[in-house]
Amino acid sequence: MRTIQFREAVAEAMSEEMRTDDSIYLMGEEVAEYNGAYKASKGMLDEFGAERVIDTPIAELGFAGIGVGSAMNGNRPIIEFMTFNFALVGIDQIINNAAKMRQMSGGQLNIPIVFRGPTASAGQLAATHSQAFESWFANCPGLKVVVPSNPYDAKGLLKTAIRDDDPVIFMESEQMYGDKGEVPEGEYTIPLGVADIKREGTDVTIVSFGKIIKEAYKAADELAEEGISCEIIDLRTVRPMDHDAILTSVKKTNRLVILEEAWPFGNVATEIVYQVQAQAFDYLDAPIQKINTADTPAPYSPVLLEEWLPNKNDVIKAVKKVMYK
Amino acid sequence: MEKITKEVYLKWYEDMLFWRKFEDKLAAVYIQQKVRGFLHLYNGQEAVLAGSLHAMDLSKDKMITAYRNHVQPIGMGVDPKKVMAELYGKATGTSQGLGGSMHIFAPEQGFYGGHGIVGGQIPLGAGLAFADKYFKRNAVTLCYMGDGAVRQGSLHETFNMAMNWKLPVVFICENNGYAMGTSVERTANHTDIWKLGLGYEMPCGPVDGMNPVKVAEAVHEAVERARRGDGPTFLEMKTYRYRGHSMSDAQHYRTKDEVEEYKKIDPINQVKEILLEKQYATEEEIEEMDQRVKDLVKECEKFAEESPYPEKNVMYDTVYEQEDYPFLPHKL
Ligand SMILES: Cc1ncc(C[n+]2csc(CCOP(=O)(O)OP(=O)(O)O)c2C)c(N)n1
Ligand SMILES: [Mg+2]
Question: Which residues belong to any copy of the Dehydrogenase E1 component domain (chain B) (predicted)?
């Protein structure tokens, strides 16, 4: 099978959908003439023209809202935030309008929109540029939240997100755009709300999503050498969450570690912990462990950032803890 | 305004040259990966800072800007060694290594950052001015932003209130032609950014931002207006950045010729020509200044290299004023 970069998978998903549906457009900062700040829309201006691949000024509140308004009137917009840190400038339009419109209009107005862009840390960018808001968006009824971890999933999930008739938050990573993976030439989609078992295992379940899952892979490789078998579940969609996949795995391994790049207070991991203790309490052989970023804004200094961000060693420690090793 | 004397020209030359060379050094150590993250350089825009400083009362006036912010605090009196150390992520840095390139802070010297979210500093600048007015300090805040930032709603909301309440603030747009790869022409249906003041009846106008004299005159008038209690001014400095937006920018959005055109009116060269023309300095004296600048840059680099990294606890200790805040654990 051919191998392409994550950024190419994103561009392919958008381009294929735009070829079959004229109502879709892509809008955001540097998406057109610059081919995307991270080249995730390379070639799209050439193919679709300036009416459908639209550069905006730096005005997140305005263009997020223009996206929602156009979705109320027939468009299916893809709105790119250069990173989700900057989505905060436009978050009123996402939470108060995109997420609420259908219910408060009594079902008359649905908002088929995708807000996409990179999430979480990307090196030494410090406090304002290293934030993971998956759990913030996932907290909000009316939104769906998708966070792929490889090019194959990114393409299949993004195509589904674009076809979805509700607002979808689609979160990528600056540090994944260059990742290569196998992606078939032909058409495929991946349903939202379905987790994927990335590694089968018997001793411990590790649940993760997004780019940080790579630390779980590295940990699992090292643990395998010690004879510990990890099952790695990639949530892929955070809202709605595939609780069945998690519960099925936990019922098999009886041990759970959750790895999430986010602040520890009230995040995606805590939701999983609640569900598992409520529905599989008797299956657990050890308290669940979760690994997050430190309970502070992201620091700049390399030595502090290393402490702040979870890594494979943290996963190994947590796995050993739930194994009582 | 204080007269622009021989001493002022000499200071402008040495300061601007130092800022330029200081940042050239940053670019060099960035390539060696000693400085990481983004790195936005001020290269070409130095006259805006030099001229502004001349019009300020540094004993009480304040400055706030975006992430292109390494040299402004130096101009305000911060030890450049500490700025270099911040970019190295060292404990001796202005923010103890927590802020990095985009977030330099030195409130003691009147420099209030250093802001990474485009447009986020605009209301903050008005807020600084609000407090100065509230406490009757007779001080003025200079609030800088890029040509890209003026399209944010924050500017428009702030302009309205600042004008309505006659806050002692000078809003200064450094129009360097581009917001990343987006030229000013592509962001609005007219290119006269200064006209954004008109809708609020805020005094406003364009300024030659490559010439420190022109900058000083315009900023002086605006600062005096603010100090008198007559409220804000909006100045559009026409300037240019020679380097890319940050370090990874292929710059396909402009031509090499365009960059060369601006280098012909380089602010440092303009001042150097005046020094020679008016015989304020001889070639030898200029060489002496050049050497001093070189030495000081070296000193900064050495200081940053040799400084220790911060202890892990500063990451926590700096979050809250409360000393015993109960942070959640994040791993075993
Ligand atoms: C709210 C927000 N949106 C987008 C960005 C990404 N970004 C950083 S700098 C920049 C361009 C800003 O250009 P301008 O205001 O002209 O300032 P300059 O870089 O030219 O000094 C953009 C889009 C950001 N930091 N914050
Ligand atoms: Mg600019």
Answer: 15-311
